[in-house]
What does this fold into?
Amino acid sequence: MPFMTPFTPRARSGLALLRRGCGLATLLVLTACGTEKPPPGCAKATPCESPRWQAVEQQGDVPPALWEASASYSRTSGDSTVVYRFGGQSGNFPDDFTVNDFHAFDVATATWKKLASPPPAARAEAVMIPGPCDECVSVVGGRGRFRTGSDQMFPEMWTYHVQSQRWEQASSEKLGDPFAVRRSSALVVEVPQAGQPGKKTYYAFGGVGNTLPRFATTPTGLRNDVAVHDEATGWRLVTTSGEKPAPRAWAAGGYDPDSHSLLVFGGYRLGADQGPDTPAGELFGPTNYENDLWSLSLETLTWTRLQPEGPLPSPRDNAVSFFDAAHGGLAVFGGQRFDGLSTEMWFYSVKDNRWTEVAFGSGSPIPPARVGGISFVRETPTAYELYLNGGASSDGGASEFFDDLWKLTWPKQ
It folds into this structure.
């Protein structure tokens, strides 16, 4: 989905070229230029423009340095160039507080505007989607603070109407199943509706289900169910079949239009060696981070665990991602590993069933490693543009908090 914010509250705690093959030329052909392998020696490898990061100068009411906010485009009758950012968290434990800041960002001019309409209560890591009406955007679910000893979740949906500048809480009939939206830190994916141009369906996978102490060890602390939003009836859970991913939050993924399926990568889970009695201090070890890859067919709602060939990204959560339909694969950047933050970029080719680590263009800067930033994608005729804003340099202990904005240009050719 073009806007996903799977990030974490907890005390969890460079990019390299391929080591074999023909170095940078091979790397770029395998990622930015598709999956066709170059001739031996790489002498005739197709030249391609490299993916490249750049810092973006922001204008207007630049939001404060926060993490774990949410973002989405609004629903419009045409192509939207405005992204809305809601909520988040400031500071680290014990001085961490959720907020209800609300901003609009004009992508075309890189200008922020703080919106003054009284918004919903403060929360972090809510699901955000274009609303069920023209010129609106919706905030779904979300959580309060962790480590308070209580359960602070928001099983509700609020819609902001752009023209009237008013918030409206969904009625029980429009909300649907409250349990379906009782989550935060979920993977949210936008899927076009077949035969209905402009219509989209929104799927939410996994996420956090409560903020109780040692939440990962509780029955609803981590989820692996799938919720679907319908404009008429609201949110509902769908029944899936096959072996399912372990319950998890802060996963990455996207929608593959060729196979009409969702891809789910990595995330944070209860380790296979852990259980209800695992001490809190042991819940952020190597087995809590995943690098597995799953596909959910939307035709049959059947899960399949994929077994990619070759090197794999290290286990992580909190990565940002988008699906590159031009080359048929999932692009993944950054994330939180057991041993620290990452600034790696990887590309999964569906056709080749293979991950490839991506090198950036010569001289390209790289954003500071972070967790809890917002991300969204703008598609142009020649490239995908991945934007990254805000976040924290750590999700435990002293942190630097960011209010910067970065753009990754990912060429289609």
Summary: The radius of gyration is 20 Å. Confidence is low (pLDDT under 50) at residues 1-47. The longest strand covers residues 401-411.
